[in-house]
Amino acid sequence: MSTHEIRKKYLEFFKKRGHTVIPSSSLLPEGDVTTLFTGSGMQPLIKYLLGEAHPGGKRLTDAQKCVRAEDIDEVGDNRHTTFFEMLGNWSFGDYFKEEQLPWFFEFLTDEVDLDPQKVYVTVFAGDTERQIPRDEESVAIWKALFAKKGITAEAVVLDTEQRASEKGMQGGRIFYYGVKKNWWSRAGTPENMPPREPGGPDSEVFYEFTSVPHDPAFGAHCHPNCDCGRFVEIGNSVFMEYRKNEDGSFSKLAQRNVDFGGGLERIAAASLDDPDIFNIDILKPLILAIRAAAVRPHIRSERIITDHIRASIFLIGDGVIPSNKERGYLLRRLIRRAVMHGQYLIGLEGDFWGSTIDVVIDSYTHAYPELSEKRVLIREVFMKEQAAFARTYESGIKEFEKIAAETKPGGVISGADTFLLLATHGFPIELTEELAAQKGIGVDKESFAREVAHHRELSRAGQEKKFGGHGLLLDTGELKARNEEELKKVTRLHTATHLLQAALRNVLGNEVGQKGSDITTERTRFDFTFPRKLTKEEIQSVENLVNKYIKMDLPVQYKELPKEEAVKTGALYFFKEKYPEVVKVYYAGHSLEDAVSKEFCGGPHVAHTREVGVFKIAKEEAVAAGVRRIRGVIEP
Ligand code: SER
Predict the structure, then answer these.
(1) For a designed S-S bond to 586, which of 103, 164, 231, 558 qualifies (C-beta 3.0 to 4.6 A apart)?
(2) What is the pLDDT of residues 142-174, one digit of tens each?
(3) With contact defined as beta carbons under 8 Å apart, do 547 and 615 qualify?
(4) Is position 500 within any domain?
């Protein structure tokens, strides 16, 4: 059965059992700032698990695109990928264990035709501290299911991983593990969950690849959660019926939910009884294409390239662009690592990348038609990053060769040199490690980490010195200027913003209060409370008054005062902000008493108001009921 057939069969199976089939959500979680990428099927559905009604009803099923960035370093073995599809089915306060476990077992053994002898399951051993009972209900269900297949399923308590590797299988089929293995929440164990987070015991299904011998490097004895690769998890039914309270205790949610997730690619690998996930039909052609084009074929590189190209395609398809931050940074790493392995380690030549991107997109056309629609963009973004990396590489490799030549065989490249390669040639540490490994040398990771921390410290200190102890941290807390030129412009706009607030209060009255402000090198944006639209005349008066203050060429200075005293001077402050005990009051005027503007502020500001230039109100508009917004610009 092809991977696409398994996906289709799965969705049909659950559709027949009353589920609404929903499309995959984006890889970029909407309105969830806690995670960079959608890494499980339940993430986009969390509010429905908490009780909100889903338009599709109480039973949903889907195949969700997932990216787990944290797995990037594992990629290269036979089963880890950064991108994968998670098959899901959900019950929002509808069915529970009695239906979920039999359905999934039926799907695996009757639809996908897995040998039930190779299926093992785990269940929750309970948490006495939090009074969450061991999951004997699931055990009873599993026993009955295996019995129907003629298998006597014994339950064995393994609890912790350490215990598990000491004890091993003991002839069991069902295994109890504790909170680390059989409890699921977005934050992990009950202890790690923040208040209000939902979670619950889970029951996981493992497939045993009997062709893989146990590797004692992972523990004395094998067991389902052993990482040696003999057992691979292919599905997880979370019985999400708890939430954490503010005091750390747990109570039941208003509804009992099921959150099931199963790795599509792993199920496909199990259906072939082949532990190498890269041998499934949607990945194998890529592996073979890479192998055929490589001057020095190498399985690890083939897998890394295959995974990284596929993940990059899906990420670009969902709107990610390479950058040095967060999501963009993962994409940059994926592309550069793929290119590094492809061009520099195994020697792929010609227009390999473009044609391979097409192969991947074509194989996903039916399931994810949006990839075909974005084909040109995906190719462009990938190729641009590839070209940028190729340029960096040429200069970096020369430097690397020099450093490596000075390192003794079996020795390590220092943290300082690794950092130099990163800072001047953009070589991520992984690349240096990879290249070093080729030469039989290592990288001193610890001293590298110290270098990075030290560098961060230095640049922070530098910023503070440059920007008067505060950086240019405006009310939003963001650093607004990256160089002297930008700093000058933003500083002028910053002073203009103070003068604007003073003028607004002068013209419109003291009901004007700051609601927010945002300054870029182009303009200032000031939000304030005022009940109605400003008239043309009022706007003109405000603008004139700001320009009058500017022409007076008032000195702009500050006084440091204890907070209480600072408030008494009548200086304005932003009610949302938490201020320290001693604050700076910036004022425009010859003395604090007769200043035209005074505000709590970290600076920086121009020394004299005339430096601001000519101020113009570009726009006045509403942002919310009772809140107006002014955009102001300055001319030199
Ligand atoms: N949330 C569970 C998981 O990610 C099941 O969907 O494993």
Answers:
(1) 558
(2) 999 999 999 999 999 998 888 899 999 999 999
(3) yes
(4) yes
